[in-house]
UniProtKB/TrEMBL annotation:
Subcellular location per the Swiss-Prot or TrEMBL entry: Cell projection, Lamellipodium; Cell projection, Ruffle; Cytoplasm, Cytoskeleton, Cilium axoneme; Nucleus
InterPro entries: DM10_dom (IPR006602), DM10_NDK7 (IPR057579), NDK-like_dom (IPR034907), NDK-like_dom_sf (IPR036850), NDPk7B (IPR037993), Nucleoside_diP_kinase_AS (IPR023005)
Key words of the record: Cell cycle, Cell projection, Cytoplasm, Cytoskeleton, Hydrolase, Kinase, Metal-binding, Nucleus, Transferase
Taxonomic placement: Eukaryota, Metazoa, Chordata, Craniata, Vertebrata
Predominant location category: other
Protein name per its UniProtKB record: Nucleoside diphosphate kinase B
Superkingdom per UniProt: Eukaryota
Stretches assigned to the DM10 domain: 36-124, 378-466
Alphabetical list of SMART domains matching this protein: DM10 (SM00676), NDK (SM00562)
Native source organism of the sequence: Takifugu flavidus
Length: 783
């Protein structure tokens, strides 16, 4: 390629001072050691999945003959005698990389001596390279060019930016890369400048730039800028940056294997794919550990003898995943890949990827989807980091939970033991809508707290647009809460927290503090504190704007003209008595949600439980998951009952057993009742019932929905129940339990200690109350 010669010319014109400086290294105090040994030393870590231990080694590499040896740091003894090892490329020896040494994946965490640090790390820099939308079609050429400049691509991702501040980069997909090499910042920047100014590369520039005015790429101007910009595209932790451009529609998967990337073949492979007429929809570099590689290739286990070698190769270094547009599904792209054995490919189909770039059956350049049904499955797996408190061992256990939406199956991986905990199995009781961070899901009687996404794909697919916002129903509309909840569920928003509360004037003033200088401040505070309100945390795609659209314009008269179907148009009176409040932005939502549902010590404004002339009702998890909450509340209100208090909560198994202890050994459904109550979010209601329990129990109906439908078809369980366990609601059975159950689900106690499930010591009122204490403590924690 003509551009490659230009690249070499650009390199020759680069400043020589830095290289001259490195050439004088031999005069240093380390020159004798270098001449005698020429040995590179690294501190490495290796996770032993069998022993579930992290081992620390010194890795020594001898460039003269390509041999390696290893020293066990803990045991202070040699672990691997010096042996020639051709599969380790010196270019891969840099801090932060992962190398494969005799089937062990070693993470290079630091240099092992000053000589190695000076020799290999003195000038190594990392910089951001962004290929702009106009040049994406030449991405293969650019990868070749990068390789020719002795720069290493350590991270890469095709993404689409939407921020207004990056106007020039938002017209289409870009490819962001982390480049590493000697003086990487200046080398990459010099190349960009060279393309802009050199006559010899004008033709190449015309190739890369469509409008003739902008360069084809962006480069960091300094190491400080590089660090900041790399953090934007490739955050160090707790985030994944801009998502990749995967579509999962009419596409197939291709993985460029580690050996091909290490040999600098990435650009050539990308070019061959493009020249064959295929469009690359998405691109991302990644590393795969052994457990995931085994899982990925599981279909070949016991089928092809190369299975262990295939696993070793896939986890030996960085891979590049490509999504290829292939409307004919897999066969046409598989034709381009060729037979798995490159020797056969070279004989029968010499222009295929494996014929051109493969070495043997294991190092055959690329993996492609073999079966049509696997094209989405190879990508469509949701991963979560979860926690489960084991009450028997009193230990918090950490798992990876994998969910496969294609067939609704799940599997679990033990993070500590680094081994599979649950083999993949179909599990119908897990609803994909429940898979969001902060939720609790039940998998085979284990309540798993979803604490984070387990991989970038899941974060991009499920979390990229998920927002949380505050929905506040004002005093004039609290009686409409059932209707409101029905419309919320119809809008594909999820209620993750809810509480009926009565704000004091001071609390309302604090909530409206940002409007203190506005003329409507006093009237707004007065009205908000004039009666009970219902505060809810809503979650969903673009929840902030979705809820604002549901509410309509702030002035009810304006809402009636501009959005007659909105809540404020239908139920509002003016600009203050306007049905409800919604957060204006994500930042405002975070602040307002913290006001009602604090994440730290405290519970926020208390709920409105009275414990007088009332009974308890719990809407069960299955009914909430099925979107029946609003219908149940409407039915209760239409039957003439007043809802005095309302709060959502989660119950763990130990507390559910305690709560239902009176039924243990009495009803055969006891275990199922416990499982259901702790399977997800519940909603506790305090119902005004001056006739004590009987009248509200009449509305609930018999425990068996089938019996209810025959004898009392208009009861809650007849209308919304499914069976004796999933019968929509629990209600207080015994008159003496009404205060106790209201207190257990709507009361307040001391804040919990982290990961502690025991109840705090509080006075015992009488024996029946004692049975509810543990349950009471756990439920009040979430108040």
């Amino acid at each position: 390629m003509e551009l490659m010669g230009d690249a070499a010319m650009a390199r020759r014109e680069a400043p020589q001072s830095a290289r001259a400086q490195s050439g004088s290294f031999g005069k240093s105090s380390h020159s004798l050691a270098a001449a005698r040994e020429e040995r590179y030393a690294f501190l490495t870590e290796w996770y032993d999945p069998t022993a579930a231990l992290m081992w620390s080694f010194q890795l020594f590499y001898y460039p003269k003959d390509g041999s390696v040896e290893m020293f066990d740091v803990k045991k202070h003894q040699k672990f691997l005698k010096r042996v020639k090892y051709d599969d380790l490329d010196p270019k891969d020896l840099y801090i932060g990389n992962r190398v494969n040494v005799l089937s062990r994946q070693l993470n290079l965490i630091d240099y092992g001596d000053e000589y190695t640090a000076n020799k290999l790390g003195g000038k190594k820099e990392r910089t951001l390279a962004v290929i702009k939308p106009d040049a994406i079609i030449k991405i293969g050429d650019l990868f070749e060019l990068i390789h020719a400049f002795d720069l290493i691509v350590t991270k890469a991702k095709m993404t689409t930016l939407t921020r207004n501040s990056v106007h020039l980069l938002s017209s289409g997909p870009v490819v962001a890369m982390e480049l590493m090499g000697d003086d990487a910042v200046s080398v990459w920047k010099k190349f960009l400048e060279y393309v802009e100014s050199t006559d010899a590369l004008r033709e190449a520039r015309a190739q890369f730039v469509m409008d003739g005015t902008e360069s084809f790429g962006h480069g960091s101007v300094s190491l400080a800028a590089a660090a900041k910009e790399l953090q934007f595209f490739f955050p160090a932790k707790n985030d994944y940056g801009p998502p990749n451009t995967a579509t999962f529609t009419d596409s197939t998967c291709c993985i460029i294997k580690p050996h091909a990337i290490a040999e600098g073949l990435t650009g050539k492979i990308l070019n061959t794919i493009s020249e064959a007429g295929f469009e690359i929809l998405a691109l991302q570099m990644f590393n795969m550990d052994r457990a995931n590689a085994e899982e990925f290739f599981q279909v070949y286990k016991g089928v092809v003898p190369e299975y262990p070698g295939m696993v070793n190769e896939l986890c030996s270094g960085a891979c590049m995943a490509l999504e290829i547009l292939d409307t004919n599904q897999e066969q046409s792209f598989r034709d381009l890949c060729g037979p798995a054995d490159p020797e056969i490919s070279r004989l029968l189909r010499p222009n295929t990827l494996r014929a051109l770039f493969g070495k043997d059956k294991l190092k055959n350049a690329v993996h492609c989807t073999d079966l049509p049904e696997d094209r989405v499955l190879e990508e469509e797996r949701y991963a979560f980091l979860t926690e489960w408190f084991d009450p028997i061992a009193a230990v918090l256990r950490c798992f990876q939970l994998f969910y496969y939406p294609n067939d609704g199956s799940v599997e679990m991986f033990d993070m500590k033991k680094q081994q599979k905990f649950l083999k993949r199995i179909k599990y119908d009781d897990l609803d994909p809508k429940d898979l969001f961070i902060g939720n609790r899901v039940k998998v085979f009687s284990r309540q798993l707290n979803l604490v984070d996404y387990g991989d970038e794909y899941t974060a991009n697919k499920l979390g990229s647009k998920k927002e949380r916002t505050l929905a506040l129903i004002k005093p004039d509309a609290v009686t409409k809460i059932g209707e409101v909840l029905e419309k919320i569920y119809a809008s594909n928003l999820i209620v993750t927290k809810a509480k009926m509360t009565k704000l004091t004037w001071s609390q309302a003033a604090d909530f409206y503090a940002e409007h203190q200088s506005k003329p409507f401040f006093n009237n707004s505070v007065h009205f908000l504190s004039s009666g009970p309100v219902v505060a809810m945390e809503l979650m969903g795609d673009e929840a902030v704007s979705a809820w604002k659209k549901f509410l309509g314009p702030a002035e009810s008269s304006g809402a009636q003209r501009e959005a007659p179907q909105s809540a404020r148009a239908q139920f509002g009176t003016d600009g203050i008595r306007n049905f409800g409040h919604g957060s204006d932005s994500l930042a405002a939502a975070a602040r307002e949600l913290e006001f009602f549902f604090p994440s730290t010590i405290g519970y926020g404004p208390p709920n409105t439980a009275t414990y007088t002339d009332s009974t308890c009702c719990i809407i069960k998890p299955h009914a909430i998951a099925e979107g029946l909450t609003g219908k149940i509340l409407n039915t209760i209100s239409e039957a003439g009952f007043e809802i005095l208090a309302l709060q959502m909560f989660n119950m763990d198994r130990a507390n559910a057993e305690e709560f239902f202890e009176v039924y243990k050994g009495v009803v055969p459904e006891y275990n199922g009742m416990v499982n259901e109550l702790c399977s997800g979010a519940c909603m506790a209601l305090e119902i005004l019932d001056t006739d004590q329990e009987q009248s509200f129990r009449d509305l609930c109906g018999p425990a068996d929905p089938e019996v209810s439908r025959l004898l009392r078809p208009n009861t809650l369980r007849a209308l919304f129940g499914k069976d004796k366990v999933k019968n929509a609601v629990h209600c207080t059975d015994l008159p003496e339990d009404r205060v106790l159950e209201v207190g257990a689900t709507l009361g307040h106690v001391m804040p919990p200690q982290e990961h502690t499930y025991a109840a705090p010591l509080i006075p015992h009122l009488y024996n029946r109350l004692e049975q509810n204490l543990v349950c009471e403590a756990a439920l009040r924690r979430v108040s």
